[in-house]
Every structure is written in C-alpha cells, then in structure tokens.
Design brief:
Elements lengths: L1 E5 L4 H12 L3 E6 L10 E4 L19 E4 L14 H29 L3 E5 L12 H21 L5 E7 L2 E2 L10 H9 L7 E2 H12 L10 E4 L10
Helix pairs in contact: 1-5, 2-3
Family: Belongs to the short-chain dehydrogenases/reductases (SDR) family.
Protein name: SDR family oxidoreductase
Keywords: Oxidoreductase
Amino acid sequence: MNYLVIGGSTGIGLELVKKLIADGHDVTAVSRHRGELPLEATFVELDILGDVTVLKNHLPETIHGLAYCPGTINLKPFARLTADDFRKDYEVNVIGVVKVIQQVLPQLKASKQASILLFSTVAAKAGMGFHASIAAAKSAIEGLTVSLAAEFAASKIRVNALAPSLTDTPLAAGLLATPERREASEKRHPLGRIGTAEELAEAANFLLSEKSSWITGQVIGIDGGMSTLKSF
C-alpha cells in the first residue's frame, strides 16, 4: 500500500515512516530536510507553509493513508502572545493539513479504503496555562477531524486524530533540556513518565491500517492518563 507522511523526517513522523516501511508499504515522506529518513522512503522536499500543489508530481495514483505530523510548541503567557503567534500556530497545524488534503483527495478516494490521521494535543481539552495559542489551533484540528470524517465517510475515507501529551521528540527538546525539567514533566503524568515517539507512531500505524477499519471520527488521547486521571 502507498502512504504519505507529512513531516516524516523527525520525531513521530520519522518513527511512523520506519514502521510503515517495516510492514512492507511504499512511503512518501514530505519535509523540509531529509534528515535520517530510511533510503527506502521516497523523499519530497517541501515546506507546507508554501505552495503544496507540487505534491501531485511526486505521488502515486492511489494513496491508502495520509498522516500529517508537523506541529508547534509555542508556550507563552497569554499577555505575551501576539496575533502573529496565533496565526503561525494555525497556519502550521490547520491550514497546512487543509492544503495537503485538498491536493491528495483524489488519490485517497481512488483507494476506496483510505485513512487520514491528524494530531491534536492533550491541551485542547485539559486546560493548561501558557497553551492558549497551540490549544486553539489543535482544537480546530479536532473539529476538522470529525467534520471531515462525516463528509468523507461516503468515500470510505476514515479520519481520526491522536491527542498526545508531552512526547520525547526533537520538537519538545527545549522542554526536556535538563534532568530537572524532564523529572518535573514526568511527575505531571499519572503514569509517571512522558511518552515516546515510538509509542505514538505505533498508535498512528494502527489508525492508518486496515486493523482500525471501523474507527473514524475519533480523537484518541495518548497521554499517560493526563487528560482523564488525577493523582492524589
């Protein structure tokens, strides 16, 4: 099967690419840099903030799954957030995926069994200070997920989202830069640790696969219990 992973050269996207290739699939990975992508992956150099119409020149006629992995971590007090901060988070997290889906929708429909996977955040539902901009953008992703799931169901395209808490990826490196910061982050989770890119990629792989063929319109928390549990 053919899979398209946007943001596939680092973090969760990279681990997902590796898992899809290990399962015998053909993977096109889109990113600004190739990074450590396996040689088996087809790499397309592209900034999703720019013109994405060139994607159609690099894709097969049929796509069975699309994962959109780019994200932002812009944590500031609300009073210090600018309108441009909100615009950038929305542009990367929402407008980027809208442009990509519109470009590849014909290939997804051609598969007659496609799956789209988006990424939200635990902060979209669990109120967290200093998360106003990213929580607003990711809340839009959750609305987009259920709306597209409803619209695309007739075309047999499933749409789901994962809502992780803090995950050990290059994007989160600044939040985990010292042993003290890492320990504090781990203690905030009921399970006593942060997530790994491999764990999120495993869940992503499942939702893209036929094993989840009766799951659509869902936002699934992969967050160490943070969204639903309270430690005493």
